[in-house]
Design goal:
This protein is an all-beta fold. About 0% of the residues lie in helices and about 55% in strands. The radius of gyration is 14 Å and the shape is globular.
Length: about 120
């Protein structure tokens, strides 16, 4: 079993920055995938950014150039640096991990990000 703990959410003004962190623990030998998703009220959960083994990254078009995902494989952590935040970035942000390509997904409990003046 794998546990994910997220931190770093909060309230920020438009144009501001936040850094989200996610730490994975439990029965982990290696991690294939770590990523951040978000879900705004009334909308489906969507991928924000992800990183796989080897350092390959993927970003939603809406956050390219503003968000940066980084992973520490030794610590089993993944961070999301969010700059130039917009009100439309307001959502609950969830961390997800997968230990291998064929394994199940593990999700964190979510952290609220609110961008408002």
């Amino acid at each position: 079993q794998v546990q994910l703990v997220e931190s770093g959410g909060g309230l920020v003004q438009p144009g501001g920055s936040l850094r989200l962190s996610c730490a994975a623990s439990g029965s982990i030998l290696s991690i294939y995938f770590m990523g951040w998703y978000r879900q705004a009220p009334g909308k489906q959960r969507e991928l924000v950014a992800a990183v796989t083994t080897g350092g390959n990254t993927n970003y939603a078009d809406s956050v390219k150039g503003r968000f940066t995902i980084s992973r520490d494989s030794a610590k089993n952590t993944v961070d999301l640096q969010m700059n130039s935040l917009k009100p439309e970035d307001t959502a609950v942000y969830y961390c997800k991990t997968r230990l291998s390509f064929y394994s199940r997904d593990f999700w964190g409990q979510g952290t609220q990000v609110t961008v408002s003046s």
